Prior knowledge:
binds pyridoxal-5'-phosphate, Aspartate Aminotransferase, domain 1, globular, 12 strands, 2 domains, 3-stranded antiparallel sheet, Aspartate Aminotransferase, domain 2, 14% strand, 15 helices, 7-stranded mixed sheet
Amino acid sequence: MRTSKRIEQLPPYLFVEISRKIAAKRARGDDVISLAIGDPDLPTPRHILDRLHKAAEVSANHRYPETDGLPELRRAIARWYQRRFDVVLDPDTEVLPLIGSKEGIGHIALCFIDPGDVALVPDPAYPVYAIGTMFAGGESYPLPLTDENGFLPDLDHVPESVLRRAKLLWLNYPNNPTAAVADLPFFQRAVEFARRHDLAILHDGPYSEVAFDGYRPVSFLQAAGAKDVGLEFHSLSKTYNMTGWRIGMAVGNARLINALMRVKSNLDSGIPQAIQEMAIAALDGSQDCIEEHNKVYQRRRDRLCAVLQEMGLRVRPPKASLYIWARLPDGYKSGDFAARLLEEANVVVTPGRGYGPAGEGYIRLSITTPDEQVDEALRRLQAWIGKQGLKR
Ligand SMILES: *Cc1c(COP(=O)(O)O)cnc(C)c1O
């Protein structure tokens, strides 16, 4: 039996590797605390769960859903975008529900990329942008996100030879893993860049509602002309603690939405309708839960940042996202640092290198771990660092 080249080329999925290491340690009886994965620990709000219970009893929901989702869900998504961002969407042509946004992010390369085509992909980044491109036979050209450029890609220095083959530009703000944010003028420049070079922009924005200190992230679609050149992926996962239910959406350019819908109609059979009803309840219902969750995250962020700074790591308290992106002192490799922290202190963080070469020298900590465990992880970190005498 011979597997495909694309399977052989596949790097190990970062989190699968980490989960395996944690499982092995736990099997040995070690009490491991993970700050590695961005997966809200708080439950899905009650009013959303109540809707699921009711929807489970409706026999129409026991049957195949439509690929393009319930019209009522598409309308709820359009209403939410209008209320939150003042962005107007046609629910019939500019909105497509997804089985979690990762599903659409992974599949959309099939709409654009032929063998030899290029996608411009930030580095570090959520791994799915580059992997989807590879699955479609394309190549990724990395756009480094660094402290010096504010973790925004430098669009003016992409070589002409790359631009000629490029079909796509991936963006993601608030950013995972760097926690950087982008403002409207940046998105405006990106739209102009896409027009100039005949590219599509795919903006991944699942953290727009996870923000602190009163900061309100913008949507890519608020930029003038954004809908002419691109799509935004969004998700119920981080906004409403719904990672386990798997529901998200793509919104924006009607031609792209239609292309993605046609790909999906050949691969999946839609989102369970009871879960689509949960999403309607979430989008149309009270949004107070968002502020409540953000208060919890903000408290954890402040505690973690204070201890990390004491430890000699350079961190900027993030304005948004579920992550802290911490710079290691010079000379430390992120993989070694994370491996030793797990081995010697039973605390898991993600090595920045796992998100791309430009992530080297950083670790990512998530703020989705319960408070008591965050406190215990911080005690362990302090003790471990104390023993190291970390170089500054
Ligand atoms: C969590 C996350 C997603 C995926 O969210 P789902 O809707 O749960 O699939 C997409 N992009 C980024 C950058 C994420 O961090």
